[in-house]
Design a protein that fits this description.
Layout: H1 5-9, H2 11-23, H3 32-44, E1 48-53, E2 57-64, E3 70-76, H4 103-120, E4 125-132, H5 140-146, H6 149-152, E5 157-164, E6 172-173, E7 177-180, E8 182-191, E9 195-196, H7 206-223, E10 231-240, E11 246-247, E12 250-259, H8 262-282, E13 286-295, E14 298-300, H9 302-316, E15 321-322, H10 334-340, E16 343-349, H11 368-382
Parallel strand pairs: 3-4, 3-5, 5-16, 6-15
Antiparallel strand pairs: 1-2, 2-4, 6-16, 7-14, 8-12, 8-13, 9-11, 10-12
Amino acid sequence: MPIPDKIYALAPEMTAWRHDFHAHPEIGFEETRTSEIVARALEGWGYEVHRHVGKTGVVGRLKVGTSPRSVGLRCDMDALPMHEITQLAYRSKFENRMHACGHDGHTASMLGAAKYLAETRNFDGTVTLIFQPAEEGVGGANAMLADGLFDRFPCDTVFGFHNSPKLDVGKFAIRPGPMMAGGAFFDIKVQGRGSHGAHPEHSIDPVLTACQIVTALQSIVARNIGAVDQGVISVTRIEGGDAYNVVPDTAWIRGTARFFKPEIGKLIEDNMKRMAKGVASGFGATAEVDWRLIFAPLHNTPDEATFAADVAAEIAGEANVERNRSLIMGSEDFSFMLEKVPGAYINIGNGDSAQVHNPAYDFNDKLLPYAAAFYARVVEKKLAAA
C-alpha cells in the first residue's frame, strides 16, 4: 500500500505546521506554545487530550470500535540551544534556539497522521499519540513515564521514528535488537591546592592532574572493554582557573560515554571512578566523579522491528528498506519507553541535508508524507478490524 492520497493531500498543512514550529523553537520542558498547538489540533479532531504529561508533554487518545488492543505512537517536540545559520524564510526567530534535529518535522508528521486517522477511522482499538518534550538529554521520556504514561494510557506496543540525513528520502532503515547506544554524562571534580603561577611548587596542581586523568581515561575502552563490545568516552570540556598567573584550587573534566550494553556502561562508570581517584591521589589531589545515565541503550523488539520494516516496505517498496542497518553510536531517550513496552524505532531518509545538531541543518519537507504514512499504517495494521 503506497502513501494514501489523503496523506499526500495533507502535505501542505504538515509543511505549514513544520515551518511554524521551526520558526518558534522551544527547548526542553519549555515547549508550551508547541504543546498547546498540538493539544488544540487534537481536540478539534475528536481526540481525548491530556496536557502536562511529563511537564510539557501531550497525550492524545482516539478509540474506534470495541477492540481492547492499543498502539502508541511517539514523537519529540523540543529544539536545541544553538544558533541557526540558515537563511530560510522560516528560520528561528530566537537567538540560540534552533530545531537542529528535526523534531519540528517529527511533530508535524504525527499531527498529519493524527488528522488522517481521525478522518478515516480505519482501525479497531485505541491509538495513543505521545508528543514528548525534552528529548535532548534533559529527561523528557522519563518525566512522562514518572507521570504514569503507560499506566494511565496502556499500550500493547509503541513506535517512533527519526529522520536520517544522507539516507535518501523514501528510504527506511531499522534493525532488530540493539540499534542506538546508551549515553551518560559525567563531571569529574579535581580538587588540588592553588598557588601563584610563579611558584607551582607550593601547589597541588589540579589542571595538570586533570590532564593526566583525561589521558588515562582513554585506556578504559582500550584495555577494560572486550574487543567484541563497543564503547566511547569523549572528554568534551576541561575547566579550571581564571587568571594567567594563578594555579587554581579546582579543575573540572566533563564529557560523555556511549555503550550498547548496560553492563558496559557500568564497567565504564566503575573504572572511571577508580582511575580518576587513583591518578588524582598520585598527584596529591582528590577526584570525585558524578556519572548520570541520560539514555538507555535503544533495543527494538525483534517482532516489532520486523513489523515496522514490513510497514515501511508497503509504503516505499522492499528495495527501499534496510532491515539490518549498522549500529548508531548516538542516543535517544525513546529507549526508556521501549524498556517498558515492546516496540520499535525506525529511521526515515532526510536526503542530502546537513547532519543533525548542525547549525545549517533543516528537516526535509518531502519526508513528511512518508513519516505520516508510516505512523498511520502502523495503527491500521496493528489494529486491523477482525
